[in-house]
Amino acid sequence: MPLGAHFRELRNRVLIATVAITVAAIVGWYLYDPVIAFLTAPIEAVKNERGDDLVSLNFNSITGPFAMRLKVAVFVGILMASPVWLWQAWGFLLPGLLPKERKIALVYFFISIPLFFLGAAMAAYTFPRLVGILLSFTPKGLANIQTANDYFSTALFFCLAFGLAFLLPVLLVALNQIGILPAHLMRKSWRITLFGILIFSAFMTPDPSAVSMLAMAAPVFALFWCAVAVAFFMERLRRKRGVDPRNRYARLSPDEATPLS
User: Which value, in Å, is the radius of gyration of the alpha carbons in the chain?
Assistant: First the structure.
């Protein structure tokens, strides 16, 4: 394809992704009330438990409620339309792969989507409980007044961070399959990996406490060991087929593409 055709294809794929996000955002606009009710449930629970209004959410500007509704709608739209815009990005890259490589890439794509949603769902399950725990430390007689925009932005960002973190095993297994990251090296470097996961969780989680950081790091570290197990299993299968991962590139010529399996 000439360069102009590539740009036209990119334009069309960006347009399709934008339309999908816009349509899903319209749906998210009407889902605003149940989303807000779910996110504010822990605050309401603390208020009912304390029997006062010292724990509350407030908007600090007249345009705050509208901006918040628009932000929630866009976020829900991005989340709901993620299979569409991810596929458009993936589809733009697939023609550059060999047929066998396309099949492998598609497998990783279809595994990544449910893992992303699983991470976002776990964040939605964890965040209300995390908020309830943190608000319970507010002393009697003192106010804990949250800015609504900051609170809801934190909650939405929390879901996105969990979804991205759950893609770690897909990345590790992919690196193992192309021969960059052997399984024994993954297992040997678990301490460094744990440290990296903790650093990533500390940056991605919204509050400065260690509770939310550990809430993200624990399942991601468990998924890391699942990726290690899958990597050992795949290497064992390759050895049975007579393919040694350590010497798989020995007979390749400089003009030959490296295999993905």
Answer: 23
The values of phi and psi at residue 222, to 5°, are: -65, -40
Residue 75 amino acid letter: F
Which amino acid would we find at residue 124? A
Q: Which residues contact 38 (CB under 8 A, 6 or more apart)?
A: 124, 128
What six digits make up the tokens of 152?
């809801």
- State which residues of the chain have pLDDT below 70: 1, 50-54, 101, 204-210, 212, 242-261
C-alpha to C-alpha distance for 174 and 45, rounded to whole angstroms: 43
What is the predicted pLDDT for the residue at 207?
59
Q: What is the pTM of this model?
A: 0.69
Looking at every residue in the chain, the average pLDDT score rounds to 79
Place of tokens 């932000």: 71
CB atoms within 10 A of CB 25: 19
Model pLDDT, residue 242? 65
Task: With beta carbons less than 8 A apart as the criterion, state whether 208 and 151 touch.
Answer: no
User: Under 8 Å CB-to-CB from 151, ≥6 apart: which residues?
Assistant: 39, 57
Distance CA 13, CA 147 (A): 38
Question: CA-to-CA distance for 160 and 137, rounded, in angstroms?
Answer: 26
Inter-residue contact 106 to 186 (CB < 8 Å) = no
Give me the residues paired with residue 58 across strands. 147
Burial of 63 (0-12, 13-18, 19+ CB in 10 A): exposed
C-beta of residue 140 within 8 angstroms of C-beta of residue 54: no
Interval 49-105: pLDDT, tens: 766 656 777 888 888 888 888 988 998 888 888 888 888 887 777 777 777 767 777
H helices present in 31-50, as ranges: 32-50
